[in-house]
Design brief:
Chain lengths: 140, 387
């Protein structure tokens, strides 16, 4: 399967290691995941690389208790939509927290983690997860 | 002579885990039933359109247009399949509608089919997950139930929707399916059992989720001239509309509505020159019970946020003012992904023909089917009417 291929992960490591998306210089909107075309300006858009600060808050979440094989060892885990301070939302796991303590609105910051091991022969994918800012820094 | 598009034949295989049958057999079963129901002859069929999401991953077989023509002995006519994730069936109906409306074809056989139980539950779930944004949601561990879990949690926060309301949709749809001989689960289920069922992705429980199902559904669709030749009870398609939204849920301004449904449902009502109050019966895409609650709002049955209350107060039950999913819906009739959109239209057609016996909506004249793909990135709406 495609996700076992190295190339598919390698070509997006800048985005998923550094939370690198883009900003359209025409309308000012920020995009993460990175967009190929600005959906607001289309041909008039001018997308430039933008590295996100990795700070935001939880917009919504679910606690996953049944998952594909390469996530089974992490169950139960929290998957959330994180609203980044720059505006866009992304989908990521929330870690370093008791699953029952997660709340909508909780401040979180990005951390670099192993996302999954895709089988015995598959590659190990690293990238962003998020953790509660209060837990790690003592303030929001 | 108008150029309306009619449905003159409907058919379905049994829905369920059909271990003893393969994709060809269930597809043929539904197709033959639709042809016999219409009384049309195979030689008068011009073309075949099949709705299917992922036979390649579920069974290892693609090229289903040719397969359907071949297995039915229909020879050399044009045949192809269309894909729009869980809305593939609706897409097939709409393709046939447009082909007939344009005058290119006079009579078509339309299928929806999916054989999901040949792979294990995990593989079935993985295959369905690719209907969301695989690279940016699935890869990070967002399962399909988790994405709907996020919608549900937000809906609960914004509008006070309760776990009990999520569960009452299941209770209603199972009660309806008890009267549907083609349904996967032909039995009622008590509220307590739903609320105590295992968690898939909090707040979504197993009994808030549609099951893994094998099944096929079929329609014979044709122009008005052909319809009058073969049928005394043609059902006409008053409107067929479609809309899209972002592939990933996180790119939407709101995750407590399906904007593509709002737009396409409104357009369908405009085209059919009807208001929501004129619709007597609904099939709404309840892949998870939160979806039925959201769609009840998005098609305009109730205001945004009132979908949970609608089911609680019996507005959407059989006998209510706006009966939703008399067939049992995806939850209890079953959800063979590519078949669902066609099965919804089969149910509406049978309701308008008055052939649904114990689950019949009395005197139904207009019906709406809403078929969505992914987390709402595709919406396909059909409004059907009696002559």
């Amino acid at each position: 399967m495609a996700e076992k291929g190295v190339a598919g992960v390698w070509r997006k490591i800048r985005a998923i290691y550094n939370i690198q998306g883009n900003q359209c210089k025409t309308c000012g909107n920020y995009y993460f995941p990175p967009r190929l075309v600005c959906p607001t300006c289309r041909r008039k858009g001018q997308l430039e690389i933008h590295k996100f600060k990795g700070l935001g808050k939880i917009y919504s979440f679910a606690i996953v208790r049944q998952a594909p094989d390469h996530f089974k060892r992490q169950m139960p885990y929290v998957i959330a939509q994180v609203e980044l301070d720059e505006g866009p939302r992304l989908t990521a796991q929330i870690v370093n927290v008791d699953v029952d303590k997660v709340e909508i609105g909780m401040r979180v910051r990005a951390c670099f983690r192993k996302i999954s091991e895709q089988g015995h022969e598959g590659i190990i994918v690293y990238g962003y997860k998020f953790e509660p800012t209060m837990e790690v820094t003592g303030h929001d | 002579m108008g150029n309306r598009v009619a449905i003159i034949g409907v058919g379905m295989s049994k829905f369920g885990e059909l271990w003893e049958k393969n994709l060809r057999e269930i597809t043929l079963e539904a197709g033959m039933m639709a042809i016999f129901d219409s009384q049309i002859s195979g030689k008068d069929i011009d073309a075949i359109c099949v709705g299917n999401m992922s036979a390649g991953r579920f069974t290892g077989q693609e090229h289903l247009g040719a397969l359907a023509a071949d297995v039915g002995g229909l020879g050399n006519l044009p045949a192809y399949s269309v894909e729009a994730a869980c809305a593939s069936g609706g897409a097939a109906v709409r393709q046939a509608y447009m082909s007939i409306k344009s005058g290119e074809h006079d009579a078509m056989l339309v299928f929806g089919c999916e054989k999901m139980s040949d792979v294990n539950q995990t593989e079935a779930m993985n295959t369905i997950s690719v209907a969301s944004d695989w690279e940016w949601e699935g890869l990070f561990g967002a399962t399909f139930p988790a994405l709907f879990g996020m919608m549900a949690r937000r809906h609960m926060m914004e509008y006070g929707t309760t776990e009990e309301q999520l569960s009452l949709v299941t209770v209603k749809n199972h009660a309806n399916a008890a009267h549907n001989p083609f349904a996967q689960f032909q039995r009622p289920v008590p509220l307590k059992v739903v609320m105590g069922s295992g968690l898939l992705a909090d707040p979504i429980r197993i009994l808030h989720s549609s099951p893994v199902t094998d099944g096929a559904a079929a329609l014979v669709m044709c122009n008005e001239d052909v319809a009058k030749k073969y049928s005394d009870t043609p059902i006409y398609i008053d409107a067929s509309t479609q809309g899209s939204d972002t592939l990933a849920l996180h790119d939407r301004e709101s995750i407590t509505e399906m904007k593509a449904v709002k737009i396409s449902a409104r357009q369908a009502l405009e085209k059919a020159k009807l208001s929501i109050n004129d619709i007597d019966v609904f099939e709404l895409h309840d892949s998870f019970t939160i979806s039925e609650i959201m769609l009840t709002e998005d098609v305009g049955i109730v205001e945004k946020g009132q979908g949970g209350k609608a089911v609680e107060e019996g507005l959407t039950e059989l006998g209510g003012k706006f009966p939703v999913n008399p067939s049992g819906g995806l939850k209890a009739r079953g959800h063979p992904v590519g078949a669902t959109g066609v099965a919804q239209v089969v149910e509406i057609a049978l309701q308008l023909r008055g052939e649904c016996e114990k689950r019949q909506v009395d005197g139904a004249e207009k019906g709406m089917a809403v078929n969505t793909g992914g987390t709402g990135a595709t919406s396909i709406v059909h409004i059907l009417g009696r002559d």
